[in-house]
Amino acid sequence: MVQLKINKLCMQFGDRLLFKADALQFAKGDTIFLQGDNGTGKTTLMKVLAGLIPATSGELVWQGQTHTKWWQKSPQLGKLVYLHQHPYLYEGSVKYNLSFAGRHQKMSGKLLAQRVEAAAQMAGLEHLLDANASNLSGGERQRLAIARAWVIQPDLLMLDEPVSNMDKESRRLVLEMVHTLKRQGTGLLVSSHQTCGITALCRQTWQIENQRITSGPFNTEQGSVQEESLHVITS
Ligand SMILES: Nc1ncnc2c1ncn2[C@@H]1O[C@H](COP(=O)(O)OP(=O)(O)OP(=O)(O)O)[C@@H](O)[C@H]1O
């Protein structure tokens, strides 16, 4: 079972305590809605879990191994993906962006080409495959970033405000991609200020409140879920 365990995590910026968590677990197949008010540390937590910044103290255990040497190549590379709401894209075409990570995995050229084509279609970007990624609109960039993750099928995917500033059609396309990943077993950790189609896929919640992260069950009745979710969930 692919999993990331967090023990006695503490995050501070200078003297300011951001959050503490005794024990949390994020595993393949999990679907977790990360909730918390503005500034409580949701993005920071995701960056810590992705190994992009170190926690002040505590332990992250990936597949039974503690990962404390932050300057070394992360063992989670390609298996755990973090998508920021303003995603970083590589210099080059949409096609280049979609194929980049797959080239560094043990994926055959034929399979990679098939997945890139399928991802472009799912993301509604097939007509932009040769366009320069830096010229894409905000919504197209977010769709491309999720499609890029879809190509490599990570074990764990962290989505930071995945549908913020997206129109209805973009939200539908992104939901479809995320839902496919979920069906294939990818674990999801989703931060969002409002319930949406993607949070409706979640069955657990991590709540950051009073500088503590607590976990519990989440059912979609806890929030009013927007109508676009239901079509995908039941189909
Ligand atoms: N490198 C840093 N140095 C100092 N403070 C930081 C740093 N990075 C983030 N912070 C602060 O930590 C707090 C949490 O930031 P973070 O972006 O993780 O919150 P968030 O819960 O994702 O917020 P939002 O919901 O508004 O996106 C903020 O007050 C932010 O200013």
Short structural description:
It is built from six helices and ten strands.
Describe this structure in words.
The chain is an alpha/beta fold. The protein has a domain of 157 residues: P-loop containing nucleotide triphosphate hydrolases (Rossmann fold), CATH 3.40.50. 30% of the residues lie in helices and 27% in strands. The chain contains six helices and ten strands. The strands form two sheets. It has a six-stranded mixed β-sheet, sandwiched between helices. The chain has a four-stranded antiparallel β-sheet with strand order 2-1-4-5, with no helix packed on it. A hairpin with a 2-residue loop joins β1 and β2. The longest helix has 16 residues. The structure holds adenosine-5'-triphosphate (ATP).
Structure characteristics:
ATP-binding cassette domain-containing protein, 6-stranded mixed sheet, ABC_transporter-like_CS, ATP-binding, nucleotide-binding, 27% strand, 235 residues, transport, binds adenosine-5'-triphosphate, 6 helices, disordered C terminus, 30% helix
Topology:
Layout: E1 3-13, E2 16-27, E3 31-36, H1 42-49, E4 57-62, E5 65-66, E6 80-83, H2 94-103, H3 109-122, H4 138-152, E7 156-160, H5 168-183, E8 187-191, E9 204-209, E10 212-217, H6 228-234
Parallel strand pairs: 3-8, 3-9, 6-7, 7-8
Antiparallel strand pairs: 1-2, 1-4, 4-5, 9-10
Bound molecules: adenosine-5'-triphosphate (ATP).
Adenosine-5'-triphosphate (ATP) binds next to helix 1.
